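Task 17 of the worksheet. Students: predict the tertiary structure of the chain below and write it out as structure tokens. Keep your answer in the requested format; marks are given for formatting as well as content.
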Amino acid sequence: MPTKTSSQPTPKTTTQTEAVPSARETTFDIFRRWGYLQSSLDPLGQYLPPEPFPTPAPDGADSEEARRYYCGSIGAEFMHIPSPEKRSWIQEQLEQEFVASDAAKARILTGLIRADIFEQVIQQRYLGTKRFSLEGLTVLIPFLDQVFSTAADNGVTRGLVAMAHRGRLNVMVNTVGRGSHEIFTKFEDVDPRSTMGGGDVKYHMGATGELITANGKTVHLHLASNPSHLEAVNPVIMGRARAYQERAGENGKNEVLPMILHGDAAFAGQGVSAETLNLASLDGYNVGGAIQVITNNLLGFTANPEESNSSRFSSDLAKRLPIPIFHVNAEDPEAVVRVAAIAANYRYKFKSDVVVDIIGYRRHGHSEVDDPTVTQPRRYAKIKDHPPLYKIYAKAIGVDATAEITATQNEFLEEQKIATHAEHKPKLHSLPDYWEPYLGGHLLPTDNPVTGLDAAEIASLTKALTTAPEGFHVHAKVAKLMDQRVEMGDGKKPIDYGMAELLAYASLLKAGTPVRLSGQDSQRGTFNQRHSVLIDIETEVRYSPLGYVAPKQGRWEVYNSLLSEAACLGFEYGFSRDFPEALVLWEAQFGDFANGAQIIIDQFLSAGEAKWGLLSGLVMLLPHGYEGQGPEHSSARIERYLQLAAQDNIQIAQPSTAAQYFHLLRRQSMRKWRKPLIVFTPKSMLRGADAMSSVADFAVERFQNVLPDHEVREPRRLLVCSGKIGHNLRVERAKRGDMGVGIVFLEQMYPWPEAELKAALDEHPEAAEIVWVQEEPANMGAFSYVMPLLKRVVGDRALLSVKRTASASPATGSAKAHEMEEKTLIDLALGHGS
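Model answer:
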């Protein structure tokens, strides 16, 4: 690489001249930049009146020509893109006359007829039932058809679609290819007992199917299940796309196309939209571009645009990125399909996101049972007299569509009759073949793999984990750590959590299992504990020993994520949905921060199986522990996860030793049972001597849901606890020499290990008191969950509890106050001062 000798620009010689743009080029530049401000985009002409250009355009033939391209039914925003190549490509697409072929017109008309008639049949047969009609934006059906047709011509074989409610049922039938009788059966609500306590409303359900393109190609489509938290599905579909692409191999980004359909108010208002857009070019999350579509009816429930977003267009959020935004009038179907083709080609050519803002209207209220004339009386007076688009378009192209309309109506009515005789709800989606080995439901007793490894295997894995390439300059502190890890693996020192975790990953990778870990600072670890990636101190080249454990190992990925919880957790959940054989982990910087992703946790991780029959083995690593670091660096909110636990939907554990953590991670991967696993990981105890393990502990057959106390004899009381407080109690017990108190660790909180816990308590029948001890306040932690379950186990013995006083805040911000509180807790638990 040549060395730069001067920061000063080279002076121009007298013969150098600047290229002066022509008058035509200057005029066109104005329209390229500002033409969208005077485009005809609002079908009802109410909310988007033309705006003057910041730079006035001159009169003349050049302006007239440029106006045709940039101020019609399409408004393009692309001049903010730094790349001249991309800008030039878009200009070339837009600055030409467009004429749809007769075949294309016929296909557009068919799509519009089917979209509107489908909605009308539902309105007639199921009056007063929510359906979130597409009427006013039925052009979405021809749009999707064109996107996937163009994408298929570029090599796409699979499309993954995320969308909110509006138009979902229509898309299921007219794009995904589900039979309309299946949708009508959902309205009949047959066989309610089959979904007692589970299932979901019809406009949240997902669907799989196939679309046959205009050129006869097949695109496999999946419409993702999505809750009422409209944009929450966005990162999920991106993670799923990434998983499909990795499965497809080198050409995956060309073969798999993700698309997200947004509402206008939701796109502008939901923070996860911005978070998901920011994934676009990040190494761990790149999917080769997504097509982001705003189905814009210029309304958010009852809110007008000026109440929903602070700019002219709801799409303005996307201008933070160097991606094009195409606005298009939904009442010009040919302009819409033209933009669809441009968008699909742009995504394929530049592997970039692209935003399409289809601006239409909403014919009915938010959910058909709502009366919109109360909140938008003038707008709905216009809509009342506005004909459906298929009639407008048929007239515009001079086609008498009466016969096709009648045939389509009869088809849907016949399908509706079939639905009235259905006995069971249809299943609208099918799982890919790679899910066949994996199970949901209740855990089978036989699904209990041996996770232990002998000393020789631990030593072999250690060698791989502590070897850097020749000539690699490892930081002195990290080199010292690697030397310590060599001693750990050889049995000369006890093994800590950081090393135990890497051993778990290495063992799985060696067996061919893919492992993916992401989170803020996950390569090194928030607490300087992991160092899964080594950084050369001279070149900053990165090297991960886990990528070189064995010749035919599983794929290893570890990413420092963007500063996001919702988008990152959603992405990893999505990835786990289509890579069930992989161990997929997301780590919060501090467990407290996971509440930034609470919607993903509530809607997908804890309820996805009950609502949609969808499984995931995602692991959440949440650092938890009270060390006097204040309210936002203490509690991972154990109580929230326990409140969500039911019907064996998730697993919740707090492993108290390094070996237990090792076994837990291996168990999660090696089982055929696929349930999300929430792990409360330590902070200060990462290097605590009491929590370290010997090599022999790694040879134990399995993770133990409960760790009994075999050290005490005839204790007067038994303490039951989980996590760091148990170690603090053990250390203090040893200091005081008081072996009259036993300490039992509850390692898995859910599913509740009743048999194992009873056995641990029954080892000491002489203990008159059973005491639940936690470091969290009384209204937090596991207290409310554990006490009634413990009552069932302890029998006639006294059941007591020790915890902090109920509090509005998770922890004190004073380190000294924390120490005083903890000392009191320990005194009370050990029976001193009680």
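Marker's comment: The CA atoms of residues 438 and 672 lie 5 Å apart. Residues 1-15 have pLDDT under 50 and may be disordered.
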